[in-house]
Input
Amino acid sequence: MTTRREPTARQKRLGSELRRMREAAGLSAREGAALLGVNSVQMSHIESGLSGVSEERLRRLAANYVCSDAQLINALVAMATDRTPGWWEEYRGVLPAAYLDLAELDHHATFRHDVAVMHVPGLFQTEDYARALFAYMNPEFPDGEVELRVGHRMKRKIVIEGPDPIPYETVIHEAALRIKVAGRTATRAQLARILEMSEADHVAVRVIPFALDDFAGAGSALVHLGGPVPRLDTVVRDAPHGTAYLDSKAQLEHFRTLFRRVKEASLPPEQSRDLIHQLAKEL
Output
């Protein structure tokens, strides 16, 4: 059983779901290991994403864990057996793993919901906007490092601009639209890009205006990625020391509710477009 040096977020998620399934069955890690004929260390590696698991072994575990959710089991099998390299692999060893993990999660998502408060969502960002953000990092990146990150961010757009786009819904605070991250000309181009994408059938853009009374959700920024079944959804949030991937049942329910509340507070798409048009005219 080969051990991975650095499992991806998707591989870790597969392992954590197997652990949750085992715990729901009331079995210890030692008892789960016995079902596969492995030791506790090997079982720990599987449940932490350090080692893979075959379809036959996964289905054996699910049967012994008395899991009857066929859709969930099939989705986990797909996670365990899909070894097709994605475009993001060209950045492995060049960019931090979190960049690759988010691209992989985007690739496998069935939908994406964003709430953006201070910056335009990454999937909408123009090159000039993204370059200004990365160039502002402290300590500063060398020019080549900035371009690597900009190139990676532009390629991630394939999930909403490619031949098979996923449904994408975003709520953007007016603050993010007004802040001139890269100057007046670049900001005008950025707003035009958002308006262009908002016309796509699979994209919905909503804006929270400054004029809204009683909005206390300034800390609501999040990315919610849909899984093949709701249990496999993932919420991504920026944390003080990196990116946090949240996927427990309670966390997912919390952020589904948070997105619903922020969405209800926002302007509908048509009024949102009107506001963005007005902001562009003011530049």
Remarks:
- The longest strand covers residues 168-173.
- The first helix runs from residue 9 to 24.
- The two ends are 60 Å apart (CA to CA).
- The CA atoms of residues 230 and 252 lie 9 Å apart.
